[in-house]
């Protein structure tokens, strides 16, 4: 079966789907995107992702391509036409098609919207075998990483370096020696004192939707944590570390630059939070009464 894409109002087979060579996404990376996980046909944390999309669009002054309700219909239709039970749906909005000039085009240019979906593996039932290794890389991205822009070249180069080193992820380090985030994930630690920590939101990191969902669950469970940054030395000395993202969920980080974190095994806090998020994404979590 041919995969189906939504491109500016039309559902098309991938082989027929195309955008203009003067689309500003192609010319300038002038656009934003979202990746929403799909499990058992459900869009996971859809509201968080669409809220973030709206924020990203607002930050770079692109008008929404359609209403939120209409976008929800398109997302589900793309998932349905591609018969995706478990996987992801990708949406990208650019400023549209216009003559190649750096300033924004004159009013009247419509934003461009592309939506695709693909199948993927279901979240594992346990974190064993889900752990990964990472390398460290200098954070060479622009100063507004809180916007989910399609301009991802530094991330691409960091992930390629990780692959060439036999690792899964690259953990990015700023000029002061502090961890910002992974090339495609937020980073958490259980520090040497046993405190669960992740960096506070700000321009240096993406406001991860899985991060936000997990923080909500921590509040419901009265699990103490701190939104407080940490250094590379803190990460290396941590008892446990893990990543959160729309495709990794809670993913144990077991080795960094070839050395184990903690004892190199999935730790008890990571194991508990993996299980907590798993019930959330599966839709089986029983929330406490207000």
What keyword list fits this structure?
single chain, 290 residues, alpha+beta, D-amino Acid Aminotransferase, Chain A, domain 1, D-amino Acid Aminotransferase, Chain A, domain 2, nine-stranded mixed sheet, six-stranded antiparallel sheet, 15 strands, globular
Write up this protein.
The protein is α+β, with helices and mostly antiparallel strands. It has two domains: 4-119, Aminotransferase class 4, branched-chain amino acid transferase, N-terminal domain (D-amino Acid Aminotransferase, Chain A, domain 1), CATH 3.30.470.10; 132-282, D-amino Acid Aminotransferase, subunit A, domain 2 (D-amino Acid Aminotransferase, Chain A, domain 2, Alpha-Beta Barrel), CATH 3.20.10.10. It has helices spanning 24-28, 46-59, 68-81, 153-164, 209-220, 232-237, 268-282, and strands at 4-7, 10-13, 31-39, 42-43, 87-94, 112-119, 132-138, 169-173, 179-182, 186-190, 196-198, 226-227, 240-245, 249-256, 259-260. The strands form two sheets. Strands 7, 8, 9, 10, 11, 12, 13, 14 and 15 form a nine-stranded mixed beta sheet that branches. A six-stranded antiparallel beta sheet has the order 2-1-6-5-3-4. A hairpin with a 2-residue loop joins strand 14 and strand 15 (259-260). The radius of gyration is 20 Å and the shape is globular. The model has no long low-confidence stretch (mean pLDDT 96).
Question: Which structural class should the secondary elements be placed in?
Answer: alpha+beta
Give me the CATH architecture of the largest domain, please.
Alpha-Beta Barrel
Radius of gyration computed on alpha carbons: 20 Å
Query: What is the makeup of the main sheet?
Result: 9 strands, mixed
N- to C-terminal distance: 47 Å
Total number of helices: 7
Nearest-integer average pLDDT: 96
Count of domain modules: 2
In total, the number of strands is 15
Within CATH, the superfamily of the largest domain carries the name D-amino Acid Aminotransferase, subunit A, domain 2
Say what the CATH topology of the largest domain is. Answer: D-amino Acid Aminotransferase, Chain A, domain 2
User: Considering DSSP H and I runs of 4 or more, what fraction of the residues is helical?
Assistant: 25-40%
CATH class designation of the largest domain: Alpha Beta
Q: What percent of residues are in strands?
A: 25-35%
* Secondary-structure element string: EEHEEHHEEEHEEEEHEHEEEH
């Amino acid at each position: 079966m041919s995969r189906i894409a939504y491109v500016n109002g039309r559902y098309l087979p991938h082989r027929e789907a195309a955008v203009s060579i003067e689309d500003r996404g192609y010319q300038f990376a002038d656009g934003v995107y979202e990746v929403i996980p799909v499990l058992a046909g459900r869009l996971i944390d859809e509201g968080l992702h669409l809220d973030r999309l709206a924020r990203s669009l607002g930050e770079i002054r692109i008008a929404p391509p359609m209403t939120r309700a209409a976008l929800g219909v398109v997302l589900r239709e793309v998932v349905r036409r591609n018969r995706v039970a478990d996987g992801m749906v990708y949406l990208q909005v650019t400023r549209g098609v216009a003559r190649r000039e750096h300033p924004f085009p004159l009013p009247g240019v419509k934003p461009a919207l592309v939506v695709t979906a693909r199948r993927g593996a279901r979240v594992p039932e346990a974190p064993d075998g889900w752990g990964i290794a990472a390398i460290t890389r200098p954070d060479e991205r622009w100063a507004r990483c809180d916007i989910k822009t399609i301009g991802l070249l530094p991330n691409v180069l960091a992930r390629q370096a990780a692959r060439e080193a036999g690792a899964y992820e690259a953990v990015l380090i700023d000029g002061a020696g502090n961890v910002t985030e992974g090339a495609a994930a937020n980073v958490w630690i259980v520090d040497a004192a046993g405190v669960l920590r992740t960096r506070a939101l700000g321009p240096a990191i993406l406001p991860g939707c899985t991060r936000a969902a997990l923080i909500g669950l921590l509040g419901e469970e009265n699990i103490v944590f701190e939104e407080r940054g940490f250094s590379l030395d803190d990460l290396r000395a941590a008892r446990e570390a893990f990543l959160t993202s729309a495709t990794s969920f809670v993913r144990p980080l077991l080795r960094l630059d070839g050395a184990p974190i903690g004892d190199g095994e999935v730790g008890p806090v990571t194991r508990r939070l993996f299980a907590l998020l798993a019930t959330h994404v599966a839709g089986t979590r029983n929330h406490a009464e207000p």
